[in-house]
TrEMBL record:
Record keywords: Hydrolase
PANTHER family recorded: HYDROLASE ALPHA/BETA FOLD FAMILY, PEROXISOMAL MEMBRANE PROTEIN LPX1
Top-rank taxon, per record: Bacteria
Entry coiled-coil feature ranges: none
AB hydrolase-1 domain location: 9-242
GO molecular function: hydrolase activity
Name of the protein described by the UniProt record: Alpha/beta hydrolase
Gene3D superfamilies associated with the record: alpha/beta hydrolase (3.40.50.1820)
Length: 271
């Protein structure tokens, strides 16, 4: 790194908001920006609500907040991982490296799993917020404290219901979707920037390695301890930020001094 400042853009997931990053502390030498997806949080009434159009919106956001010529880290959770993948594949000039947390790709594509995906979409059409509340129950494990759970549930209620429906279809079932394992390589194979993936199982970590182009630098952090689930960055934000910073330094994407820099109180959000 030739600069003393490391830039990072944080991308929340489906039904979330920048509040998901509030407990994640990055070094004081980092400048971070938390992006809000259309249809979510303070942008609940804004569109569009498709993966590809939102990826372009994210690209515009990066251009607007990061100094020209500077490539930030893109750190993304869940559905946000589809957006970061598209930036890596189609806008590499805006990405120095990509960090994904249990991203919404390489999804199950067996007949049984596809049937479940269609059932989920049907339930979303009936009552999107009720379906989401039920959906995230499986992501609530012993490492996720009550404050984090409250943030997640509050974010769901603030999300536009139709946006929840449209994004889900755009992730997995619409033409051009790449959330299913058979479709993910269509985009992943075009990545050129290094990737760090946070996963809970060997199978998911191996799928990340296999979907990318041969020779791409892919690192996997496996949180295999019983109880870790989908919101790893909220379950243990200190461990998460430490591993991200170490990876960035090892790959020349951040200064070695960042390892010694005191963390800021929360992930700084500057718009």
């Amino acid at each position: 790194m030739s600069s003393s400042t490391t830039y990072a853009v944080l991308v929340h997931g489906w039904g979330g908001s920048p509040k998901a990053w509030d407990t994640v502390r990055f070094p004081a030498t980092w400048t971070t920006f938390a992006y809000t997806l259309p249809g979510h949080g303070d942008r609940a009434q804004e569109g569009p609500w498709t993966i590809r159009e939102t990826a372009e919106d994210l690209a515009d956001y990066v251009r607007s907040v990061v100094p020209a010529g500077v490539k930030p880290l893109i750190i993304a959770h869940s559905m946000g991982g589809q957006l970061s993948m598209l930036l890596n594949a189609e806008h590499p000039e805006l990405v120095s490296g990509e960090v994904v947390i249990d991203p919404a790709y390489n999804g199950g594509d067996s007949p049984e799993e596809l049937a479940e995906t269609h059932r989920n979409l049907a339930e979303l059409h009936c009552d999107p917020h009720a379906m989401m509340r039920e959906f995230v129950k499986g992501a609530f494990g012993p490492y996720l404290n009550n404050d984090a759970r409250r943030v997640i549930l509050d974010d769901i209620e603030r999300t536009n219901g139709q946006a929840l429906v449209d994004y889900f279809a755009s992730e997995y079932l619409d033409p051009g979707a790449f959330g299913l394992k058979r479709d993910t390589p269509n985009v992943a194979k075009r990545r050129t920037r290094p990737v760090l993936g946070f996963y809970m199982t060997d199978a998911r970590g191996n799928a990340e390695r296999e979907c990318n182009p041969e020779g791409l630098d892919v690192s996997i952090s496996l949180w295999k301890e019983a109880g870790h689930r989908h919101f790893m960055h909220m379950e243990d934000p200190e461990r998460f930020s430490r591993e991200v910073v170490e990876w960035a330094v090892q790959h020349g994407l951040a200064d070695a001094g960042d390892l010694l820099s005191a963390p800021v109180e929360t992930a700084a959000v500057r718009a």
